[in-house]
Structures are given as C-alpha cells and as structure tokens.
Amino acid sequence: NSPTPAMTEAPARHEYWMARAVELARRGRGPTAPNPCVGAVLVRDGQEVAHGWHERFGGPHAERRCLAHAREQGVDPSRCTLYVTLEPCNHHGKTPPCTEAVLEAGIPEVVVGALDPNPVAQGGAERLEQAGVRIRTRVLEQQCLDLIRDFRLWQSTDRAYCILKMAATLDGRIAARSGRPEPISSPESFSDVHRLRGLAQAVLVGGSTFLGDDPSLTCRLADMDQPTGSTAPSLYDQQLINDEQPYAVVLTSRLPGADCELQLIRKRPRQTIFWTTEQAAASETARALEDIGVRVWALPQQGPTLQIQEGLRRLRQELNGHYLLCEGGGQLATNMLEQGAADEFVLYLAPRFLGDAQAAPLGAGRHCETMAQAMDLRLGRCEPSGPDLKLTYYPPDT
Ligand code: AOF
Ligand code: ZN
What we know:
The chain has 14 helices and 16 strands. By secondary structure, it is an alpha/beta fold. Helix 3 (98-105) runs parallel beside helix 4. It is elongated and about 65 Å long. It binds ligand AOF and zinc ion. Zinc ion (ZN) binds next to loops.
C-alpha cells in the first residue's frame, strides 16, 4: 500500500504533484509548437484544487489557465501551492508575464520543474522569490527538461525535432520472415502511433519500406480517441477540417517513376518528398516527379547514407515542419541513431516472441565485434500501452 501524497515527506510529495503537472503538460504537445508544453497544478492541503496546461501556440500559459480554473472552481489561490513544469515567464510576449499573475493571485509557494532556457522569458523564479514567494526549483528536473526537449531543440537549432518510432517483438523483430507489413503491437499502440502521426508534419520511411509496403503514411483519425478535457479545438479536429495530412518523406537513392502504381505517387504526390542523392535529384526521373508535384531534395552524402539533419533543417525552414516521425525500418533507424538525428526513440515492445534469426531486426548495417561498439541511450519513460510496453529513449548526453 503506497501512502497518499499528503502523508509522504515533502520531496516525495513535491515530485508526486510535479509528475501530475508533467502529464497535464503532455496534452498540449503538438499544438503548442514551437513553444514549450507546460503543465500546472494548484494544491491545497494535499488535494488538487485546480489545473491547467498550455493548449496551443499563442494561447494563455499553463499558469494562467490553472488560475482561471481555480476561479471557476471558487478556489482561493492564496492558500495553495502552485506546481509548474517550467519556470513562470517574466516577460511580455504574446501574453503578459505569468509572474504577475502569480503575484496578483497571492500564491505563497511555487514549485518549479525546469528553469526556462529561453533568455527572453527567464528570471521568473528569482522575481517571485524577491517578491516574497517561497520557491523551490528543479523538482523532477530531468522529466521536466525531457518534456521540453523539442522546444530546447527549436531554440538552439534551425531544424525539425525527430521522433524515431519502432514496434518490435520481445526478440527485437519488426516483421516475420515474409517481411509483409503485419501488425506487431496492440490496437492501443496503433492508435498511439496515429496520435504521433497527428503531431508530426512529416512521416519518414526508408526506400525498402516504401517499395515493399507501399504505405500511405496518413494519420487515420477515425480510429483515434480525442484527448479529454481540452477546450481548444484539437489538432486532430483541425486536421479533419482542413484535411491536412503529414508530408510523406522517403529516403532513397532510387527514385520511382512518376507513372508507378505506388500509393504515395498516385494519391498524394504534392505531399510526398524524396530525400535523395545529388545524382538522383539531377535526373530526368526527378524532373518527371516534380512535374506531378513531388518534391525532390538532394541531401549531402554522409558515409554510406545521406545527411538526415539537412533534411530536417529544410523541413523546418521551407515547410515550417516542427516534428518529423520516422517509422523505420531497421537500416534507416540505425543510420538515424548513428547520425545523432533521432531526438527521441519510441519503442513499442509487444509481448510476442518469434525466435527466427532471419526475421527483420530493429537495427541493421553495422558490424559490432564487442559491446563497446553499442550506441547507448537513456531511458526517459516507460509506460504500458495496452498489453505492450511503450519505451521512450533519449540520446545519453541530454
Ligand atoms: C508557453 N507556455 O505555459 C509557458 C511559457 O510568446 P509567449 O508569450 O507565448 O511566451 C513564450 C515563452 O514563455 C516561452 O518561450 C517560454 O520561455 C515561456 N513560458 N511558454 O508557451 C507556457 N509557461
Ligand atoms: Zn508565462
């Protein structure tokens, strides 16, 4: 029997409520880009009395949403502790400073997850402390920093944030021996993947997946649940209304003919992008593809493959793409990890075991004599997804 948060020692209690704020913040992932997702909770006498999160870019910040919720509930914030995943902002941006809102509400204690990496907005914690508010910072800091990894990347680089997603059996296989695209993971994981596609402005596959699976790479909304509790029109609604689908990106040195029968070329040429070699991009085949609306981008060579980061940069610069979702296969996943282009690696592990060494594995193309050659990752999140396990990894040094 785990004790209730009200009974636990202060640090555990603070972490409990910060974890709750992190979950709230995650609901805003996507529509808040390129701003951070932020969550906030107001707690009184060990009870949550109000909550809020940043719902969409340009909208009210998490703290203000939380205070508005408190007002609706008839709660007096001057007897509460505010938990917020990111340091309250201290600047006039699209919205006035949250530090002002906190002081006006008379909140006596604020617990902050991560300090704001944005030099324009930071300094809120210090400002509140000077005004006499009890401040505690860096609570569950790593989780709160992981939450805004995308935001930190958008602030420090000019490229899109890349999520590498794979589904595998317990023995690390991504297909049976036939290679046919059969489902591996559960329906719950399937809808989670479509949520990721809904978040992304582009979905990337390798050349062999493109030719072998003939994927449509669309986000199929009808199968998905809506996020609950949101008042903003969700990204999913907007996509339904606008019929927006993520761009389909294919990394390949061999371009298909413009008259081929592949789904992307036949049905979605204007939303298809090839990342290819200089040579292929200069070919007649490339011109014919461009004539039907396909984009062909030449990427610089990097070792045996192409420089993925350059594709991510063009995606952000030319198409305002903030997220790219990479859906494998094993060779592309390996290249991506080797190039440090996977900012987040989401792995759905299904409780199934093939035991066939000829079945396609999660990774391919490297020669590793010893474990010293392994690429190390850091486990960020571990959560059930129906009967599967959803594991989120990050590069180790971040
Ligand atoms: C957010 N949501 O809940 C918090 C943020 O242009 P603005 O006014 O929306 O301000 C954006 C900056 O405010 C952002 O870069 C971050 O540093 C800070 N905090 N931002 O989008 C929030 N609390
Ligand atoms: Zn703010």
